């Protein structure tokens, strides 16, 4: 492909689409009066792996002054014909986590994309760019805990497939948006997005795939997480304890301030609204090993809908009442803050590509499969930390310490933006 020098417009597209790694080439084209860029990037520290992004953008000229802020001082430079870009959508090829291995593969795919109306029309918001005003509710729990049933009850649908055994029916995270009236202003609507993740403890899925899937789910929530609902059954199992520890490993202990334990299958749930059983709270703290974290518990009963018509009436009533309990809780004062990972924008996109490349190479070079050992997981984590240390951004202005719970504290010279991606 030779040495590539992007135009000012292309630089702005790459910046706004937040594409990391070595940019090998950019091809701009139009289709039905819509502007597109095909951006080819090489993955840092994996020079033989490439990804392609098809970016749908709008271009306009910004005739106003351009502000540059440095240190405590602000300078204004009058500027003419400065290209400004709005990113409408990004689609990654070959898929969200795959790669190309040769220039020839990349060139063939680029020509295929440019001339393929069906592929161009698939350029819609994907995991990499989705951002909106919907409040995000993340569901975590073991397989069979009632997590997907809770998602159906909250959204008042049956779009989430419910599992009854040790293997999760949820093979990929699923999300659904629903709308409710604000309790203060009946005309005002609140939109929630429920995200159902793969259950911890699935006997057919490795831990790395569960973590990677959770990462993709978190990546769509750029506004942040309104609430994490940790679904547990009647007894606290090892898998449910693992769910707590996984959340802490990825987000850090601060996430527990935004986490609510949902006790499912609780027959007397109506009597417990607004209350938390101190004994339940103490047992939870001891079993998960974090004695000083805040734990909020709510109780619901979401029984499967029985075939018997009379029983079905009572089951529907319980599910309806449980939904009302959950919605009142979500609208309460304690659920109005949003948890958003700070200083992760550019860094996490780079790490996301790196981790995907690492997993991709493992899947394609090692046919043994199965779970990674602790040493292998530690090795991957160490490599990610090393990758973090290699990140050098042009806009770096000062030395900061980045504390990422999963990877530890890393010193890097960088200027970061707000973000909500993971891994």
Task: Characterise this structure.
- The structure is a single chain.
- This protein has about 425 residues and is α/β, with parallel strands linked by helices.
- The chain has 3 domains: about 10-120, no CATH class; about 135-335, Rossmann fold (3-Layer(aba) Sandwich); about 345-415, no CATH class.
- It has 10 helices and 14 strands.
- A hairpin with a 2-residue loop joins β4 and β5 (about 75).
- α9 (about 345-365) crosses α10.
- InterPro entries: G_AIG1, GIMA/IAN/Toc, P-loop_NTPase.
- GO terms for molecular function: GTP binding; hydrolase activity.
- Pfam families: AIG1 (PF04548).
- It comes from Glomus cerebriforme.
Radius of gyration (CA) equals 24 Å
Please name the CATH topology of the largest domain: Rossmann fold
DSSP, total strands: 14
CATH superfamily of the largest domain: P-loop containing nucleotide triphosphate hydrolases
Hey, roughly how much beta strand do the residues contain?
25-35%
State the shape.
Answer: elongated
Unreliable runs, pLDDT <50, ≥5 residues?
Answer: 63-80, 367-372, 387-423
InterPro entries: G_AIG1, GIMA/IAN/Toc, P-loop_NTPase
Keywords: GTP-binding, Hydrolase, Nucleotide-binding
Pfam families: AIG1
Domain AIG1-type G: 136-265
